[in-house]
Write a structure and sequence with these properties.
This protein is of the alpha/beta class and 102 residues long. It has five helices and four strands; from the N terminus they run E-H-E-H-E-H-H-E-H. The N and C termini lie far apart (31 Å).
Length: 102
Amino acid sequence: MYFFLISDNVDTQVGMRLAGVDGIVVHEKKEFKEALLNAMEVKETAVILITSRLFNLAPDFVFDLKLNRRSPLIVEIPDRHASVNVTDNIAKYIESAIGLKL
């Protein structure tokens, strides 16, 4: 099982690297989409961690991948600059996946 981080800041990448998680730092929407698709193609990748700021660049794209691909698991994580409530995004995902509004 392999974890991979896609982050928008170096601090998060360094912290996760110290925990043994490889990753990449990107800032633009196009870079983010390419990095996410590339990470999904690695067979050993079980979990892809995405910082909230990047998730918010392309939420529909991420939700589509979550709903239509069995693996890897895509998880949004807050970073030190996060002002977004991750719980709201999880609720939105559940609503679109099974039609249940929380």
